[in-house]
Every structure is written in structure tokens, then in C-alpha cells.
Amino acid sequence: xxxxxxxxxxxxxxxxxxxxxxxxxxxxxxxxxxxxxxxxxxxxxxxxxxxxxxxxxxxxxxxxxxxxxxxxxxxxxxxxxxxxxxxxxxxxxxxxxxxxx
Length: 101
Known about the structure:
With about 100 residues, this protein is an alpha+beta fold. The protein has helices at about 1-15, 30-40; strands at about 30, 45-50, 60-65, 75-80, 80-90.
């Protein structure tokens, strides 16, 4: 029993000290106007439902596009010239339409 307790204590201590990690992910990038027209076009019919900006940015530089019928979604990071698709998928579900306070 004592050995199990020592093992569990050691395991918890090591787990608590675990360092965060990073990863690299390939993303698709193109002209901002091209990406937006593809998302809004006949194939995806997604519309922007959310815009966000980084702390020091004056204008939005992230957007979430959703197709309410098919529940497809795409999140992009963009600037005036270039946009990159950070993620896309299915099953978009908006839990609440209440604004953040």
C-alpha cells in the first residue's frame, strides 16, 4: 500500500510539472478576397457570424464562418491581403445568442 501511495504522489507531482507543448500545422492561405468568396460561394454558403481581433490589432483579424443549414464552419485568420484557414469542420452549434458581458 505504501508503494502505491508513493507512486501516486510521484505521478501527481510529475504531471503537475508537465510543460506545455507546441505543434506545427499546415494551413491553406490565399488572397483574403479569394478565401472569403469561396466560403460565401455556392459550394459552402457560409456567412461570418463572429469577428475577433488580437490584443494590439485595430481591426478584426479572425472570423468564424458558418452555414446554418449544413452546420459546416470555417475559422480564418486574415489581414488586408492574405487569409489562412485555421480550421474547418461540421456540426456547428451555437449554444447561446446572448452577448458576452
